[in-house]
Amino acid sequence: MPRPKGSKNKPKAAKVATDFAAAIAEKTAEKEQLEQNIAETLEQISNLKAQLKSNRAALKSAEKPSPNWRAKRPARTPKPR
Known about the structure:
This protein is mainly alpha-helical. It has one helix spanning about 20-65.
């Protein structure tokens, strides 16, 4: 096994004091913002679905031929015998 290289007396990295409460508060605020964005998006989707439904109904009624689309034929008279 080879010998480890480098200084054995190198200084240890200083531990950085982390503020967990602030990090948690930041993540919570970010989560609430994302949830609000999702709720707004879902509301927009439901509004667009309702609009699509009404547009399809209007299209269907527009495609339906009206009852007077042809000129009515005159009533047939019976042939004389």
